[in-house]
Each structure stands twice: as C-alpha cells, then as structure tokens.
Amino acid sequence: MSFCSFFGGEIFQNHFEPGIYVCAKCGYELFSSRSKYAHSSPWPAFTETIHADSVAKRPEYNRPGALKVSCGRCGNGLGHEFLNDGPKQGQSRFIFSSSLKFIPKGKESSACQGH
C-alpha cells in the first residue's frame, strides 16, 4: 500500500493505527506510529526514527533549517527533516511522501522478512 496519493493528498493524514512505517523500496523500519502526530501539512509528520540508522540526512541547501532525508539502508529519497519545528520546543519534524508503506502492528516481522 503506497503511503501517499498524489491526487488528493496524503491518505493517512488522520491515520493513527498502531504499527510501523517502512521504506517502500527496501522495507527497512523507519518510524513507529507512536512518533506520528497530527500536523497541518498533507504529509505524515514524525518526531523520531525507530533505529539510529533508519535514515541518512544531508543539508538541503535551498532550505535553511531543513535536511534532505533518505532511507538509511537503500538510499531511497524519503522527504525532509525540519529542525526545531516539531510538536514540542526543540523537537524536529520529519515529513514524507509516497516513499513509505504502513505495516499494521502484529504484521511487522512477516512484512520485513528478507530485508
């Protein structure tokens, strides 16, 4: 299931079912639904990754305060991290597009086997 629809916005904008969000390309675990929060952007917003190496970051030169984010395993482009723009002071906000898939709680191990 693709995480984002380009014809009408993010299909999980109000989706808070327990589970994890993985890279759509390689299946690597990126974010827990526990770190997802409601945001005015049409894309999903998270405050932290599952693993320290879930994502790789590099400066976004045309956007001060933003980092370009890719999958820490396969390098698939995921979106951006906006520094100090999270739900709490000093917290960053990760936002992403169609590069993610949602895996419901209890289905994580079978969905990520072989990765």
Automatic annotation (TrEMBL):
Its main location: cytoplasm. GO terms for biological process: actin filament polymerization; innate immune response; protein repair. Its cofactor is Zn(2+). One of its GO terms (molecular function) is L-methionine-(R)-S-oxide reductase activity. It is an enzyme of class 1 (oxidoreductase). GO terms for cellular component: actin cytoskeleton; cytoplasm; nucleus. InterPro entries: Met_Sox_Rdtase_MsrB_dom, MsrB_Met_sulfoxide_reductase, Mss4-like_sf. Pfam families: SelR. Residues 1-105 form the MsrB domain. The keyword Nucleus applies. Its EC number is 1.8.4.12, 1.8.4.14. Keywords: Cytoplasm, Cytoskeleton, Immunity, Innate immunity, Metal-binding, Nucleus, Oxidoreductase, Selenocysteine, Zinc. It is found in: Cytoplasm, Cytoskeleton; Nucleus. It catalyses: L-methionyl-[protein] + [thioredoxin]-disulfide + H2O = L-methionyl-(R)-S-oxide-[protein] + [thioredoxin]-dithiol; [thioredoxin]-disulfide + L-methionine + H2O = L-methionine (R)-S-oxide + [thioredoxin]-dithiol. Signal peptide: none annotated. PANTHER family: METHIONINE-R-SULFOXIDE REDUCTASE B1. Belongs to the MsrB Met sulfoxide reductase family. Methionine-sulfoxide reductase that specifically reduces methionine (R)-sulfoxide back to methionine. While in many cases, methionine oxidation is the result of random oxidation following oxidative stress, methionine oxidation is also a post-translational modification that takes place on specific residue. Acts as a regulator of actin assembly by reducing methionine (R)-sulfoxide mediated by MICALs (MICAL1, MICAL2 or MICAL3) on actin, thereby promoting filament repolymerization. Plays a role in innate immunity by reducing oxidized actin, leading to actin repolymerization in macrophages. This is Methionine-R-sulfoxide reductase B1. It comes from Prolemur simus. The gene is MSRB1.
